[in-house]
Design goal:
single chain; six-stranded parallel β-sheet; alpha/beta; 433 residues; 16% strand; 37% helix; Rossmann fold
Amino acid sequence: MTKNADTTAQCGAELIVKNLEAHGITHVFGIPGAKVDRLFDALVDSSIETVVTRHEQNAAFIAGGLGRITGKAGVCIATSGPGASNFITGLATANSEGDPVLAIGGAVKLADRLKLTHQTMDTVSLFRPVTKYSVELTTPTAISEVMANAFRFAESGRPGAAFVSTPMDVLSMPAHAPVLADRLAPRMGGAPADVVAEAATLLRHAKRPVMLLGMLASRPDVAEAVRAFVKQTGVPVVGTYQAAGAVSEDLVDRFGGRIGLFRNQHGDQLLHEADVVVAVGYNPVEYDPWLWNVNDARQIINIDIVPAELDNAFAPAIELIGDIGLSLSALGGKAGGLARAPELEAVLEGYKKARSSALLNARSSSNTAVHPLQIVRELEQFVTPDMTLCLDMGTFHIWLARYLLSFRARQVLISNGQQTMGVGLHGVLQPAL
């Protein structure tokens, strides 16, 4: 991004807005309040459109949806005390789902932080367990530093939520500091060549390899590498709910379905039969590893941007850490075509037949109810590649996640980390932005 030519501001609120503009923010979502009125006033005179929501949780959901689709942090703003605390569910959801979000919450004056005064609350401590970055501005001099770091934490590595507390008096203090939005985040390379070679050797010697796609596999750049890898190797593919769209339509014969919540799908059977699993951008919060890696009986090659948090059922034999797409491309080039195991091919064929039969024969047993697969069957008739489907939570989302195919990365927005009710709202405003 280009550094804003005007590096001064009359007050802290205006410098925050200058930083938002310089980071390419075009919309913010939230609810005004006394402690952040100065910030909303500054937004009126900016290029940023303010979208007022009915509830702060909704603002966080929408910011999270925008973050997931664009890869750039969505921004939400709320006033002090309960205004900011209402962000909690939305930020916890974004952090679990890998959606970049920057939340700005108002706060009482610095001198009142330790007093029992109206709407005083230690929101920094409140948000620390559910965000990647949670800080409070204590001087206008630090505004650009804090904002730049908040965006970096939200968007880099495994994306997630960042929270910045803005005391009322800091927003009104004179502020003269440069905008730091022109510092590009460091670009990671792929995993080291010797580790890639080790993983390729393990993969070539595997008798029944299977690929498990997680939430980061549905990023457009990673999805391209996934598709190239499947074409090169012919490996069977299973995905979590959040990985929807990573496999293209021309590779559907290698797809064994989506898994999550309950170990009763064809994809679970594929993983159970596997002797080596290539996990791509997978986070255990998506689907507990003890459910699919029964008795820790298979070796795991973990390809991710961050090292795995070790689990009794998820302790990778080899980890390719770095840019996921580059690591996957390097591994595919060294592994080449893999032998097709009859056991796995039978499961893939069984999945296709079972899915087709279930959709064809779906009927409700009641005149007043609709079978979920009837909805899936109808959606397949008119959901085109340019449409984005936003799913809320409930039993129905399991049916759609399992049976509704999608072939565009991030075409289906779904939560499975926190399974938050109301999260479907995060996509409502996206087409208009």
